[in-house]
Sequence to fold (197 residues):
Amino acid sequence: MSRRTALRFLSLAALLCLVLFTGCIEEEGAPTTPTPVLTPTPPSTTTPSPPSIGMRLTSPDFEPGAVIPKRFTCDGNNINPTLIIEGIPAETKSLALIIEDPDAPRGTFVHWVVYNIPVVSRIDENSIPGTQGLNDFRKMDYGGPCPPSGTHRYVFKLYALDVELALAGGVDKNALEDAMQGHILDAAELLGRYTRS
Fold:
């Protein structure tokens, strides 16, 4: 090998080492991507709202599904029983009440229609809690259970409304139901039974 060839060889070897050495320095000095630190999400401190139980209608005078005492029927004093109302929606502006007998021979018979009842938690015995409508006895009054035969069911239907209804006294159940459309916030029912002895 000539001296000139040896010098070229050494020059190439030196250049190659320089390139490799520079690459190693750059690689070692290259910034590294930081490993993300995962922070656990703290548990929620918000207490969930309790589920709404809805409106509830009961009476201290009889249990749901039980016999309605005689004094509240046509065989007694023919006065309305006490009603207890729970869970009325906060937005309620008035209440409405319909009592009917779905077992009447000629179809459902309406015993009481009352509306624009103030927002109260209790309707007292023998009271007129609001504006009375026309029942199927053709009276603006409470008409107690009076089945012609057998045991009949009597359904007390209470409605919470977002308005006071612009109705005069004496409207029937159908007119009341029409006026309530779109205004019912909640409803509750109480069922009683009666058999004439």
